Amino acid sequence: MLMRLFAPQxxxxxxxxxxxxxxxFRGKVRLxxxxxxxxxxxxxxxxxxxxxxFSAVPNRPILQVEMVPELQVFRDNWETIRDEAxxxxxxxxxxxxxxxxxxxxxxxxxxxxxxxxxxxxxxALPSAVANCPKTVALVNSVPTLKGAMFANxxxxxxLVQHRDPFAGSLRYHLGLVIPKTPGECRIFIDGEP
Length: 193
Hints:
Elements: H1 2-5, H2 8-25, H3 33-38, H4 40-43, H5 45-54, H6 72-76, H7 78-90, H8 106-109, E1 114-120, E2 123-124, H9 126-131, H10 133-140, E3 147-152
Antiparallel strand pairs: 1-2, 1-3
Helix pairs in contact: 2-5
């Protein structure tokens, strides 16, 4: 019986379970059991654990912006980026998906979140090139940047607690239009505002 538990097919199951437990207990904030069981971070757990093991990025929820100096171009040009985003928003271009075909973000649309893709992996989207050429040029000036979007969370909207599915990328958020009252709108990352 004990030998059967260490058969090759069971080793795959044990590796999957061990990586799922590792992902679940990584950081301070945890998803509930059923939420973790059905979450995409569970499906990606074996890959993500390998990324954690071989990553040069520190295991901290929030990195110092100086660690990624190529992002300075966005902070230096935030007003240009904001102006193009406001124009898109006024045109109704920053919106929820028309259909539930945006698998990675479907649950966010139900809570008010809206978005407009600028670049997704290799190429800038034609709609972005046509509507916000200055921002696209800034995005394209950073060769390591694989995806970019404008996102809008309106008053009363919220994002449900979640984990990013893929440990092979870093997220950078640059607030362009935010509430004036401190603490009125915040992002919590692993329990840290």
